[in-house]
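User: My collaborator sent over this chain with a note saying "see what the structure looks like." That's all I know about it. Can you take a look?
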Amino acid sequence: MFLMFVIITGNFNNYIIFTSIILFHELGHIITSLLFKWKIEKVLILPFGCITIYNVLLNVKLKEEFLVAIMGPVFQIGLSFFIKDEKFLYMSKAILLFNLIPIYPLDGSKILNTLLNKIFPYKKSHTISTNLSFLLLIIFLILVKNNLLLMLSSIFLLFKTIEESKNHNFIFSKFLLERLQYQFNFKKQKNINDIKYFKKDYRHLIKYNNIYVTEKTYLKNIKKKFIP
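Assistant: Without extra context I'll predict from the sequence alone. Here is the result:
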């Protein structure tokens, strides 16, 4: 349906340029993820962009997560040094700026989320990211109400954000379950009083029955409370 709309409106050449840019952009993510030995489940080519679905643990290192997210824009910027066509450069710049808006699941949201996780616990970071996505989408929908393509893109992003928000508790439970199932060798340690303060890239000692125990010991004892 989207391709029919593109052809009817005479924008087929623009769509070819757009698709070429997003595929090269996505190549940056894919190559970087393969260097970190991430498992790729599938690559979705959508009318409004491209999404790579990874089979990777939520507790993957923040450094890896950040580099995979940032290398798409880096590849795209690099391509602009080799192609001098004005239309191509204009579209590439527009796509880059749009993609860096911190709306889920755009790269801007993923980059921001890695930075938030450096400051806040995992659960709070996820909440801030999804809430910010909702806020920006509302503003964006108001601003682009006369642009059909951007309206359709925004509606798609809204559904993705709603889905991510609805799965908030499930995602956090998966994050905790990974801590129980796998052995992570995080160098930094933090003492906490509640599981909601679990941070990425940290191992934890958590207060349980008035003493501090390892996170595995604690999670074994409360497993029924967080497993969906």
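A starting point for your reply to your collaborator: The beta strands are 39-46, 49-55, 188-192, 202-208, 211-214.
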